[in-house]
Amino acid sequence: MSSGELSAYSDEVRRVAERVSKARRVACLTGAGISAESGIPTFRGAQGFWAGRRAEELATPEAFARDPEDVWKFYFWRRGLLREKRPNAGHHALAAMEAKAAEFTLITQNVDDLHRLAGSRNVLEVHGNIWIDRCTGCGQEVRRTIEDHSDEIPWCGACGAMMRPGVVWFGEMLPDGVFERAQSAAGNCDVMFVVGTSSVVYPAASLGSWAKANGAFVVEVNPDDTPLSGVVDVRFPFASGAVLPAITNALSAIRELNRGSVSARGAG
Question: CATH number of the domain at 1-40+87-127+174-268, please?
């Protein structure tokens, strides 16, 4: 995408920034697309294979019960890929937007932790986090880092049971309370961003339309059309790394202009 193509959307960028500047609550849902911009293979994409098998064959409770060592090898491989990846301009723009907002909730379907690395604070991970080990016995969780990652299957220090990756597998329920908080944030926001998600994986896919039904101004950022595209207020058919920084820059300009206007009125 060229800068000229995005410049054709300058009015929309300004319009969205103005809505954000006036919003009391802002929410954002992100999907695999924003992580793909950091070079992370999409879970369901052409690169979603490991040892000749699709990820969907390994990311299940049944696969873990049958061969936990094999499943852990798959997740060690995925963690190894993530060790070399860093947040991109889209991640950083959302963190900057949160810093400027009165209330900002970031809801992500991604498990890679890149939003937190970029500086986002109020993050709801509806599909869990790949850097968490969760005990299959007592449920205790241990958060790993890139630095302390190893390829040895972890065992619980509290009860001695095997740990498992702290992600939501196919056929599992979402973490307790997380989706309810996400739904509340979407239903009560003034502006809702839907970024890099196909809007087909439920229940997260319902959040954009839920926000719209509750009166939010909904913005979609996605190079591809989705089931949500026809109902949003503004759609940007580009990657998040181009669009979101443009919006945050416009937001900063609006706030600077407003501060200047207030100062001018108070002079003399």
Answer: 3.40.50.1220
